[in-house]
Amino acid sequence: MDSLHTAKTRYTTKAYDASKKIPKEQFEKLLEILRFSPSSVNIQPWHFLIAETDEAKQRIAAGLTGGYAYNAAKVLNCSHTLVFCTRTDISNEYLEQLLEQDDVSGRFKDEAAKQGQKDTRSGYVEFYRNELKNLSAWMENQTYIALGQLLFAAALEHIDATPMEGFDRNIINQEFGLAEKGLKASVIVALGYRSENDFNAKLPKSRLANDVIFTRL
To answer: Is 21 a catalytic residue?
Structure first.
């Protein structure tokens, strides 16, 4: 499918057809695309909770109450739901895990190259932690890059999606013991197929004009 056509026709789904499920092979393809998302210095500060069963989706929907209740049906009726989690810190052990994976993947021609990658990556982490003092925001920015990759990939696969920031983070973090794992919930994504009653599917897209958002230098 043409990428521009995909960008113009994908949208945030508001209602799902609970009877339609994403084929397993296609869903696994989306997960692999998600795994290959880019991140600054390949820091990969994310972890993804996958809900395929009704029981698992109900656990996520528990965090969609009160002012967020309007999102619960999306989670319960979609085919699959993902909770995008972000690390709360970057430890030396995690940096070593990344470096060793780089080595196994064949990214270093010699020990000097490996040491260079180690110094560069740890340098970025310390810069955001100690100088800018926004390591958490930097890591979460990377998680949102992965979100964008998934949303576009899903549209290319003719799968509907709904990113949701409207949820009780404390409930989700507690339900899945995320703090104990050094994680926090950042965004929830529902995946599946739109209902015929989805009003948003029939509305035209609205974006600001080129001259408002682009400055050609």
So the answer is: no
- Whether 155 has a pLDDT exceeding 70, the answer reads yes
Task: Kindly indicate the confidence band of residue 150, based on its pLDDT and cuts at 50, 70 and 90.
Answer: very high
The one catalytic residue in 100, 126, 165, 181 is 165
Q: Is-catalytic flag, 24? A: no
C-alpha 7/C-alpha 9 separation (Å) is 6
The CATH class that applies to domain 1-193 reads alpha beta
Verdict on whether the full-model pTM lies above 0.90: yes
* Band of residue 1 on the pLDDT scale cut at 50, 70, 90: low
In sequence order, what are the residues at sequence separation of 6 or more whose Cβ sits closer than 8 angstroms to the Cβ of residue 195? 15, 16, 17, 77
> In the annotation, is 14 catalytic?
yes
The ranges assigned to domains in the chain are 1-193
Among 74, 140, 157, 184, which one carries the catalytic annotation?
74
